[in-house]
Design a protein that fits this description.
66% of the residues lie in helices and 4% in strands. With 1022 residues, it is mainly α. Strand 2, helix 3 and strand 3 form a beta-alpha-beta unit.
């Protein structure tokens, strides 16, 4: 349907209150744009320009999310249409038609958790994948996906789990990488509030909201929230029961549409017998009328829904705000028996039935869970068959559990049959039948795991039989274990065949294990073949291990071959490792072999290193051999060292000619020391002219510093002539300090005229290079600039040359390119140079893009330096982007600042979003501060809201105080809140409080088997 033809209320925009004075007003109040609207308008502009966009508005109920989306799509030109999938259910409608969406379509996903957090994970994955594909497909674009979501659902979908399975990875990628989001604040503040005041005269509804709304929550007031809460709190008994039943159905997973037959039967249990009798036969219709009556022009607590057809059952929908309120206030309440029985007698859609079944199971109401799972199973839900089988098994009905498990396996879900096979190993024949059936249904791991169990008790024959059956079904665990057993049995051929089969299925471990096994046994031929196959599949460890073993076994040729194979696959350095190992083991032959092999491969460092080690222990002959290995491979340093060493030996033998030949060879490589030594030899034989030429060459080659040092030593020894000669060569090479030494030496030798010429030359060069100096400095400007120290105004000049606001430009570029990592990197760069304000701007931009790490880091820094206001500001940035960690730390800050009610509200928000640690942190903080009453009060409130973790804290306190009955009561509350893991403690504590009796056996053990009734008593057999 075209945008212009759409009704905002059909798209679930909340109706507004009507003013007391009857005046003709538009259906919707005058609108005031805020920051999130500007984000939406930008997204719409990009969609108009041809880019597909997904934008999610995150905010609480009645904060104006849907109205903001409505205002944004009014900017779209003619030709755009709106698709709002909701029939038969939101998720099914979206999943069925997402592939058919074409260009210029707005996909309206109000309360997007119904689509992306569907009780059926397969449908949620299908919708998510469809949206990601659509947004990437340019041929189907542009499309504009407008989504809204409460913060707790945003956190559930986007916060990466610290441990365990990443269930919502694809949804997180869609929302935070493919898409973008913006936060809708709960209240109007600052300039936004002033803007409303400026136009309030145009719309009396705005004036009314300004006068009566609390804490700037104008949108909530306009949506009738205060009146809704008043209507709910003052509801007569029948209406209260009806609203409570609706709240419980919604919070436990029922779809929004609640049939009247379902509500009527369920609500009976929320009334006492006397109250029910007082109400009379027409109580339900009276309650419906009360709940449906408008509140100042907006729908009441339960809005009647139009029937889908003439024979469709009547249904109502609970107000969004009351739904959110119910989740907060009734989370610790387990509904009465009538609630569960109504769900069985009037089953809703399949996904609602599944959700209610699991809600019952989490609360240990196993009898009701079984009834609901049975309905879902009869409707074709295979996972419910498995869940029902698990409950039957727990209740002791093993045969019934097996029948259900076999049925589930035949329908394609062998998981519970596998689990059942492994938990009832006492009956070997029945266990194997179940395992074989599971394998036939596609789960051969049942046979493999059963085989492991047989193997662990020494039944190798039985284990191999099971492994072979699983291996025929391509189970890699079975192939791995069977490979090991056949190798142990001395059957290398079959073991190798099995290992290669496993490798063909993508599991290389059997090949690796087998190669290592044969390497340890020194069966190098077989090990090399297997290690080579593993290397071809990308695993080099067997090859490396075998090469080292062959080296230790002095099978040098094989070791070198294996090392070269590893080197071809970028695993270099293995030959060097083997050379060092051989050296350490005292195997000189092996060390030289592998050093030579490494040198041939271009790795001469190991030969040089080993030569140095030999020198340290005065093994000059060994050092020379390693230097020769390196020199033969083209290592110039080794060649020069050898030339010098051998030249010295020739000199010691009196063979000057031989020494000169070696030194000239070194000098040809550019070695300055060789030139220097040659010059000294020429001097020794009286060839002064030849020596001078060599000294000059040595100076040019880099020996000038050594000459200058020699000249200074000779000066100290009184050998002025030779010192002057060396100083001259160093000075002519341009070495600083050499000229001054030469002038001094000439004067000391009485060669004044020559000294004067050197002095004059020095002054002329200084005059030519002389430049004005900076005030107060003798250093030339050019010298100062060469140091690289920027002038004080350099940063200012750079900023003047840049755009007026370079940070904004960088943020825009990074956001447009989708490079959140760039925002983080630039933020840290500004932080490192002390630009805290700039770092915060990048942190805010990154948080807007869904990445809060920089904001959290900056907030933690502010907190460390006791800048509480700065820390709170940045934690709120991260919290607005969905960080529950930030909420946890905010709660702590507000508690320490003396605002306990704020801290509690924030902790509740974090817990609603999935971070219950915020509540337990606050409880512990109060306990450490000695506020035990405050800790207990808050724990009880949190437990009432469904956060059972808080109750566990109180259980421990009550138990330590000797109040077992009180502790048991709190365990019951935790179970009622959906923490079935507290059931064991409940039974233990009830047993402590049970009066000793010999006449009646205790039925407490039956709780673990059969569960509880809604009133907390032990369930009868079912």
């Amino acid at each position: 349907m075209a945008v212009a033809d759409r009704d905002p209320f059909d798209l679930e925009v909340h109706r507004s209150i009507s003013p007391s004075a009857a005046t003709a007003l538009p259906a919707l109040p005058v609108y005031v744009e805020r920051a999130h609207d500007r984000h939406l308008n930008d997204a719409v502009a990009r969609a108009i320009a041809g880019t597909s966009v997904l934008v999610t508005l995150v905010g609480g109920s009645s904060t104006g999310k849907t109205r903001a989306c409505w205002e944004a799509v009014q900017r779209l030109p003619e030709g755009w249409r709106v698709w709002h999938p909701y029939d038969p259910t939101r998720a099914h409608a979206a999943a069925e038609a997402i592939s058919a969406v074409g260009p210029r379509t707005v996909i309206w996903l109000n309360e997007a958790q119904h689509y992306l957090l569907s009780p059926d994970p397969a449908i949620a994955e299908r919708i998510t994948a469809g949206l990601r594909t659509l947004l990437r497909d340019q041929r189907r674009g542009p499309v504009l996906v407008m989504a809204t979501m409460w913060p707790q659902y945003w956190a559930s979908l986007t916060v990466r789990p610290v441990a365990g399975e990443d269930v919502f990875g694809q949804q997180r990628e869609l929302l935070t990488t493919t898409g973008e989001h913006t936060v809708v604040p709960a209240a109007f503040t600052g300039p936004d509030l002033e803007a409303v005041r400026a136009i309030s005269a145009e719309d009396p509804r705005l004036a009314d909201a300004l006068a009566k709304a609390v804490d700037g929550e104008l949108t909530q007031y306009l949506a009738g929230v205060p009146e809704l809460i008043t209507r709910y709190r003052t509801a007569p008994a029948g209406a209260a029961a009806l609203i409570h039943a609706a709240m419980d159905f919604r919070r436990l997973g029922h779809a929004p549409a609640l049939s009247h037959r379902l509500l009527a039967e369920a609500a009976e249990g929320y009334l006492s017998t006397s109250t029910r009798n007082e109400l009379g036969p027409g109580w339900f219709e009276d309650a419906l009328r009360y709940s449906a009556a408008p509140c100042n022009g907006v729908p009441g607590p339960l809005e009647a829904l139009p029937p889908h057809g003439p024979s469709a059952a009547r249904a109502s929908r609970l107000s969004d705000y009351l739904e959110q309120y119910g989740r907060r206030t009734r989370g610790g309440f387990c509904p009465p028996a009538s609630f569960w029985e109504a769900a069985v007698h009037h089953p809703p859609d399949l996904m609602s039935v599944r959700s209610l079944a699991w809600a019952a199971q989490k609360r240990a109401r196993y009898r009701h869970a079984a009834g609901l799972h049975l309905i879902a199973a009869d409707a074709g839900d295979v996972s419910s068959l498995g869940a029902l089988a698990a409950l039957r098994n727990q209740a002791g009905d093993i045969d019934g559990a097996r029948r259900l498990a076999h049925t589930a396996a035949a329908a394609g879900d062998p998981s519970f049959l596998t689990r059942l096979a492994l938990t009832h190993d006492g009956d070997t024949e029945a266990t194997e039948r179940m395992a074989y059936a599971a394998a036939e249904a596609g789960a051969p791991q049942a046979l493999a795991q059963l085989g492991r169990r047989r193997e662990s008790v020494g039944d190798l024959e039985g284990a191999q039989q099971l492994y072979r059956a699983a291996a025929e079904k391509r189970d890699t665990l079975a192939l791995t274990r069977l490979t090991a057993l056949r190798a142990q049995a001395g059957d290398p051929e079959e073991a190798e065949l099995l290992a290669r089969t496993a490798a063909g299925l993508g599991t290389v471990q059997p090949l690796i294990d087998l190669a290592l096994r044969y390497g340890e046994a020194h069966d190098f031929v077989r090990a090399e073949r297997l290690a080579g196959s593993a290397a071809e599949l990308g695993t080099l460890q067997p090859l490396i291990d075998l090469a080292l073993r062959c080296g230790e076994a002095r099978d040098f040729a094989r070791a070198e071959r294996l090392a070269r194979t590893a080197g071809q696959r970028d695993e270099h350095g293995l030959l060097a490792v083997m050379a060092r190992r051989a050296q350490d083991a005292g195997d000189t032959v092996g060390a030289e072999y592998f050093a030579r092999a490494a040198a041939r491969a271009g790795e001469t460092e190991v030969a040089m290193s080993l030569a140095e080690q030999r020198s340290v222990i005065h093994d000059e002959a060994g050092a020379e051999r390693f230097h020769q290995i390196a020199a033969d491979a083209g290592e110039l340093k080794a060649f020069v060292l050898l030339a010098h060493q051998r030249a010295e030996r020739r000199l010691a033998e009196g063979n000057i000619v031989g020494a000169e030949q070696l030194l000239r060879a070194a000098a040809e490589t550019g070695d300055a020391d060789a030139f220097h030594r040659l010059a000294e030899l020429r001097d020794r034989v009286g060839d002064t002219e030849g020596a001078d030429e060599l000294f000059i060459a040595a100076a040019k080659a880099g020996a000038a510093p050594a000459m200058l040092n020699s000249a200074r030593r000779l000066d100290e020894l009184g050998n002025l002539a030779i010192a002057s000669r060396l100083a001259r060569f160093a000075a002519e090479a341009g070495l600083p300090g050499a000229r001054s030494l030469q002038i001094g030496l000439l004067r000391e030798m009485g060669r004044s005229e020559e000294a004067a010429r050197w002095t004059a030359a020095q002054q002329e060069e200084s005059a030519a290079a002389d430049q004005p100096s900076l005030p107060g400095s003798e250093e030339p400007v050019s010298a100062r600039e060469s140091v690289g120290t920027p002038a004080p105004s350099d940063l200012a000049r750079r900023r003047e040359r840049a755009a007026e606001d370079p940070i904004a430009e960088q943020i825009d570029q990074a956001v447009e390119a989708g490079h959140t990592d760039t925002l983080i990197r630039l933020g840290y760069r500004h932080l490192n140079v002390g630009d805290i304000e700039g770092a915060e701007r990048f942190a805010r931009a990154a948080a807007d893009a869904g990445e809060v790490s920089l904001a959290l880091h900056l907030a933690d820094q502010r907190r460390t330096v006791r800048d509480t206001a700065g820390a709170e500001r940045l934690y709120r940035v991260a919290a607005d982007a969905g960080s529950t960690i930030a909420l946890d730390r905010l709660a702590t800050i507000r508690e320490r600042a003396g605002f306990p009610s704020d801290a509690e509200e924030i902790a509740h928000t974090a817990a609603d979003a999935g971070n219950a640690a915020a509540i337990t942190s606050l409880i512990r903080a109060r306990e450490r501060a000695g506020d035990f009453d405050g800790a207990e009060r808050f724990a009880l409130e949190a437990g009432a809201a469904g956060h059972g973790d808080a109750l566990f804290f109180l259980v421990r306190r009550r138990e330590l105080a000797g109040d077992a009955a009180g502790a048991a009561h709190l365990c019951q509350a935790a179970v009622d809140a959906g923490h079935v893991e507290a059931l064991d403690d409940l039974v233990r504590l009830r047993r402590q409080t049970e009066l000793p009796s010999t006449s009646m056996p205790s039925d407490l053990d039956e709780i673990l088997r059969l569960g509880l009734e809604p009133d907390g008593s032990v369930s009868p057999p079912w």
